[in-house]
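Recap slide: VTT domain-containing protein, sequence and predicted structure.
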Amino acid sequence: MEWMATPYGIWALFAIAFVESSVFPIPPDVFLIALCIAVPAKSFRYAAVCTLGSVLGGMFGYGLGFWFMDSLGQGIMNMYNLADKYEIVRQVYDKYGVLAVGTAGFTPLPYKLFTLSAGFFQLNFPAFVLVSIVSRAARFFLVAAFVWKFGASIKHLISRYFNIISIVFMAILIGSFFLIKLI
């Protein structure tokens, strides 16, 4: 915890969030929680850094999928056994477009699969970035807010119920999109 409270901790968080969005298998949430517990007053700063790193990493993943899917992108998906899910993601994109990226950005779905395939399927890049910012910020700021408000005791709750929290939030988010579309 002492090391995480140093200036190197925030850089490590940024780097982990960046590479997780395109190649790394471990989500940055655990490191974000540890940093927020170490220095609660900086929780929202850590969430912002995590969001920035993740979105930039997602943009990098989009570029890999756009320009290098046949070589690098496919290799990354094979490394994590995601190749069989690729066709499912294509069908999801056909039906929901960038909203699929938002779902992956907030939930435990493999965000890297969606960033790589978004580039390959050439989803609208500005929309991809906007949805990534909203979904990743919602995820990381929610974690930071809980840790900031409730301290170390919330760590167990987040770890245990994150999937349920994600589903409830996504239902609210999707409902909001439909409500806005109707208005």
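The helical segments are 7-20, 29-38, 43-79, 86-96, 99-106, 111-120, 125-150, 153-182.
The CA atoms of residues 66 and 119 lie 4 Å apart.
(End of recap.)
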